[in-house]
Amino acid sequence: MKAKITLKDIARELEVSISTVSKALKNSEEISRDTKEKVQAFAKLYNYKPNNIAISLKNKRTKNIGVVIPAIVHHFFTTVIRGIEKYANAKGYNVIVCLSEESFDREVINMEMLANGSIDGFIMSLSSETQQKGDYNHLKEVTEQGIPLVLVDRVTNEVDCDKVIIDDELGAYMATKKLIEQGRKKIALITTDDYLSVSKARTEGYRKALLESNMDIDENRILKLSSMQMDEKSIEVFFSKKKVDAVLCVNEIFTVFSMRLVQKKGLRIPDDISFIGFTDGVLSRYANPSLTVVAQHGERMGEIAAQMLIDKVENENEEGNYQTKILEPTLVVRDSTVN
After folding, report:
1. pLDDT 10s per residue in the chain (339 long)?
2. Which residues lie across from 65 on neighbouring strands?
3. Which fold has domain 168-297?
């Protein structure tokens, strides 16, 4: 089957900008007659068809930003939204939020709905199913049409766009080193399968810290769940079979649930077992005992993502010059580890 030609392909072949191609196809008076004829002829020759998502975006700005996130059950994503709204509202933009609920299909549907003349660009965190499938065509088609896109937290190198992430590997490394410094010898990791970008990086940070300290990596102490959704049974089975003296969890929900399990078994936190989780949320602060965490600075991440997107929208800088902003995590020490 012949590959579908995109605006990016036409721009590259004719050595003009994507913006010029887009305007020429819309017969804009800003483009010279010669250029318009050349672009339109090329598009006709190669049977160019506008992308279904991007075609519905209007030429004029809507002053709306579309945000698609996996879920709001995780405190981290609520802070990202807060950061996006804080910056966007100050710039006169509204924010429309949709949830993918970790579903690839819902992610695509949300994009199509938001692009129906409603928004100027997207800020997204990929669903776990999208990363598991490795299918990013819906994102590539949007960026190839010159529609601004910023990925936050869960990202992929398969798509050329701006990105904002936390240094997840460093965060897990810092947390594991903290546990090692406190004399813990049997450190467990509760995470998800490596298809999820954040989990893969955090697993690498955990392994790096153990290797640097000349400690063996016991694969039996690593529990990889299928997704970020709670799997109580798997965690219960893990703790019934494994004897550990410290646990690093990929999010605060897994951590707080695990703490309750070991407490029911009569273990004392942090005397018998220490815990560190990711995300400095409400659960972490009010857990009993309060939870030591890797703070991901979600609000700051959201602010930066909104700034990057709005700069692209207002400067009409649709080509290249993509940036990846990497924020440094912070270890917030509380009562679930030995101070």
Report:
1. 345 677 778 888 898 887 788 778 878 788 898 898 888 888 888 888 665 455 444 445 789 999 999 988 788 999 999 999 999 999 999 999 999 999 999 999 999 888 776 789 999 999 999 999 999 989 988 887 778 999 999 999 999 999 999 999 999 999 999 999 999 999 999 999 999 999 999 999 999 999 999 999 999 999 999 888 889 999 999 999 889 999 999 999 999 999 999 999 999 999 999 999 999 999 999 999 999 999 999 999 999 999 999 999 888 655 568 999 999 999 999 999 987
2. 95
3. Rossmann fold (3.40.50)
| Cis omega (within 30 of 0) for bond into 289 | yes
Domains 54-164+298-326 and 168-297 share a fold: yes
In the chain, the N- to C-terminal Cα span, in Å, equals: 62
Looking at domain 54-164+298-326, its CATH class is: alpha beta
Alpha-carbon distance 254 to 335, whole Å?
17
Strand 162-166, strand 187-192: pairing: unpaired
Q: Which residues partner with 221 through β-bridges?
A: none
Query: What DSSP line would sit under 225-283, residue for residue?
Result: ESSSS--HHHHHHHHHH---SEEEESSHHHHHHHHHHHHHTT--TTTT-EEEEE---HH
- Give the β-pairing of 292-295 and 330-332: antiparallel
The tokens describing 206, both together, are 């955990």
Domain ranges across the chain: 7-45, 54-164+298-326, 168-297
